[in-house]
Design goal:
The protein has 363 residues and is an alpha+beta fold. The protein folds into two domains: 183 residues, Ribosomal Protein S5, domain 2 (2-Layer Sandwich); 151 residues, Alpha-Beta Plaits (2-Layer Sandwich), CATH 3.30.70.890. It has eight helices and 14 strands. Helix 2 packs across helix 3.
């Protein structure tokens, strides 16, 4: 799929005025993990995620005409009302990358304002929500100016493609409930270039799945996910990992379709632990889980054995635990969290989350 504009497309008239677009876009939690990439943000293995509801970024893109045409991107960025020079520099690089897709970028100045509903850079895929929200803003701006993305399927496919160029996992946040990113014969239409929605294939067992995020730490991660992906190049277990991810995806898709919650638990936990094992045997190695992460995992396993309730844990590239469980089990599970797990969270903090309906445009 080629989303780049041809010569002469998307050139603004002199009548463009100051305006803004805004989107709220959620984070997502990968069940089969994407770890390792090549080319321009292309995955080494396919991944599948649940889209979250309460963990999101809100991004407003304010734009105005520039007095003179320039091939230098013009933008400013504020996060929670404060300047973030490092991320602004990353955004400069991102806008340079997508100028071939949105040539009108050269004719506008952008003021970008963003905030998160969750702690930034603590392992809740903040780049996924941030870049998906920004990609949706850019696609909305294109449609507002040129009426080129009136079809919602085409709009979201392009937004997923554009989001991927900023953060691979952001491609999955464009869609409600669940999304798959990466080429695989298991699901029709799957692609390395953009994610596809797979919420329609979920068995009723998963329709109201809960996800409590246990905040073991709210501090910024010591190693970025981008650096972690780079360490997969030359990793001694890389090829076996990619094969294993493909097999786990097959088992997970089958579980989600048939409602096999027990197999779902096994795959989620194996994927989480394997992700962190890969980090711990990289060169240089790094450890993102903390002692309280391990304590919580141990207690979850004990609770599952004693209660026979199929709760599952998973983690992104950070210390915080995502506890996944059925809506019908929430009373017992939430009591367990309150009485046994919150003491191991920073300031007894958690986020009550679950499957979400995807991004929404903010008027």
């Amino acid at each position: 799929m080629n989303f780049e504009a041809s010569a002469g497309e998307f050139v603004l008239s002199s009548k463009v005025e100051t305006g803004k677009v805004a989107w709220r876009s959620p984070s997502n939690i990968a069940l089969v993990k994407y770890w390792g990439k090549h080319g321009d943000q292309l995955p080494r293995n396919p991944s599948l995620s649940f889209t979250l509801s309460q963990s999101y970024s809100e991004t407003t893109l304010l734009f105005k005409p520039r007095e003179e045409f320039s091939t230098t991107v013009s933008l400013s960025f504020l996060f929670d009302g404060e300047s973030k020079p490092d991320f602004e520099k990353r955004l400069q690089g991102y806008f340079d990358k997508v100028r071939q897709i949105f040539p009108f970028i050269d004719q506008l100045h952008f003021d970008i304002r963003s905030r998160n509903s969750f702690p930034h850079s603590s392992g809740i895929a903040s780049s996924a929500s941030a870049f998906s929200a920004l990609a949706l803003c850019l696609c909305s701006l294109e449609d507002a100016l040129f009426e080129t993305l009136q079809d919602d399927v085409v709009f979201r496919q392009k937004a997923s493609y554009v989001a991927r160029l900023g953060s691979g996992s952001a491609s999955r946040s464009i869609f409600a409930h669940a999304a798959l990113w990466g080429e695989t014969g298991l699901v029709e239409g799957a692609s390395d270039e953009y994610a596809i929605p797979v919420g329609d294939m979920l068995h009723s067992e998963f329709h109201q799945y809960c996800n409590t995020i246990l905040l073991v730490s709210e501090e910024q991660k010591s190693v970025s996910s981008s650096a972690g992906h780079q360490l997969m190049e030359g990793h001694p277990f890389a090829e076996n990992r990619y094969l294993q991810a493909g097999r786990n995806l097959m088992y997970l898709v089958e579980s989600l379709r048939t409602g096999d919650v027990e197999r779902f638990v096994q795959i989620c936990e194996q994927e989480a632990l394997q992700l962190h094992a890969l980090m711990m045997c990289s060169q240089p190695y790094y450890i993102l889980m903390q002692p309280n992460s391990l304590r919580i995992i141990q207690l979850i396993r004990e609770f599952r054995l004693e209660s026979k309730i199929p709760v599952a844990f998973t983690l992104d590239a950070g210390p915080n635990i995502h506890l996944l469980y059925r809506y019908n089990d929430r009373t017992k599970v939430e009591s367990f969290i309150e009485n046994n797990l919150l003491q191991y969270c920073t300031r007894s903090s958690m986020i009550q989350d679950g499957l979400g309906k995807g991004p929404i445009q903010i008027e």
